[in-house]
Amino acid sequence: MKKSIILFTNDFEEANKEILSLGGHVSQKFTDYVIVAELPDSVDPKSLKVCNTKQPSDLDEVSNIVVKAWKGLQNKGTNRSPSVTDGISWDSEGYSAPNHPEDESEEESLELSRSATEDVQESTGTPTSLYMTGSIAVGLVIVSGESAALKLSSAEQQKIIQEVQEGLTFLANVEPRAKISFVYDIRLITVSAAPGSTASYESAEGPWRNEALGQMGFQANRNGSIDYVNDLRQRKGTNWAYVAYFTKYPLRHFAYAVYEKTTMHYNNDGWGVDNINKVFAHETCHVFGAADEYGSCQCGGSHGYKGVPNNNCTNCTGTQETCLMSGNDLQLCQWSRGQIGWDEDLFPDSTAKIPLASGIYTIQQKSNNRFLDAHESTNKDFSVVTRTAQNNTTQKWRFHPVGTVYTIQQKSSGRFLDAHEVSQRDFNCVTRTAQNNATQRWVAMHSPSDLSSYSLQQLNNGRFLDAWESSARDFSAVTRNLQNNDTQKWTLDPLGDNTYRIQHLINGRYLDAHQSSANDFSVVTRNLQNNNTQKWILTPIGGVYTIQQMSSKRLLDAHVSSSRDYSAVTRMPQHNSSQQFVVIPRGVNTFSVQQLVNGKYLDAHTSASKDYSAVTRSLQSNNTQRWLIKKV
What we know:
The protein contains nine helices and 32 strands.
């Protein structure tokens, strides 16, 4: 079991390291000085060296408010009595449901493509909130007016923060594998704007929100809110970000979520202020892709980043599970979990060995439990198939590691090595916040002619890390097609804790990166500076292997043309990337197997008419492309 403890520190980075080393994690960072950690019961908080359980006397105003709010939350939990609203459907008689508007004025005020806004209740594809894992910045913008009716008192501001803390405590802890850490940016703002018309969402929200954004230094319009969230994500160095606006100004509806934001009225309609936590958590799930499960919801469909159906909708047949997306209850059903990205693909099994050790394994398709096998005759083209278990060497495969797949993270900024993919940007390398995709995955393999150096190949397109060698090009790092020369060879200088300096073999310069958006966070090489801009954390997330059938000694390979259906076959060793496969964990003993030469994934037909033949296909994120790999 773990316990939530509020802690105080003057060095968050070191505090976070200490908490992680003890098996805990920071679930909420309220300010630079106040955090909440989830610590194992075996850890005495008073034994921490970088954190303190005692509140300092010199905290700033916002830090003091969040501490009071947290203490109020603990009292609320102790003294709370059951409520008549607990667990009831959001559309129960006598109550207004939280909303997810498709408001024309809202869309017209955004300079966005129709495809990005046509289904705002799902927020699918919102680039700042694709799925709810990792670090998430939350802009908590609490806006008062000048009149008594619009002013939020200090106690009311504290209450809002307390309720947000409660809602996010639930989301941060209900799925431990997601390793969620909410990072707050709290703004207490007073504006002079007159209330707007409640004829539309934007006309009601725009006047006070825009003035608040202007005070914060952003455009005083709808796009300024998006700019704020993008800035928040970059400034806080988080995976994702969104903003929550709270106010007493009249709104078209008391609570709703659109694109990058949630907006709520303090009174929280008939639900009352003590239920802000649940309504806010509900709206947060909308921002990350969850669908409503009450009222006129539609059964099935495709929702969220993973395209999960809404099979807990009240209009589906069968018994509806208790869920935050259907009623006033802090529980999440399996369907809502999938819609916000809580899927094995997005938090790989931490116990899986990365990469797999050299050895002999069986490879079993997860969708139908058939085993990878292969014909052993030329008239069948040595084609690879799946078969029921035969317990012989045709279904045993030797994995030989030839490389490792890493994310490469700059220690100073926490940003990840990435690269533009168009010639107009010269395929320049940059650093970006975490995106959890193949643009930030790099295959490290020894150079055949020099075992002391490596090539670093971007997984999504197969291009190799290279760099200009002149000051006129700022010694910029780029990606290039394979050139087989020293400009694409790099040495890794270990510094401990998976941290390395990455040195360009051809000239001895070190990989570095600009730290500002003005330079697009571009990656360069520099002379040795002995600082954290030249230190890179290499986190292994998979391996590259040749996969050899034990019975025939032939290697797994695949055709690379549609005319051959991208069929998998076995071939004698050819020492090229068509026989090299990227293996990445996707759950317990479950992996994807991706051909390095073209990035296609191992799959298989599921009918006898196709001989259950194995093929490679583009990513489909389903169990036909997931393989149970177990050591023999």
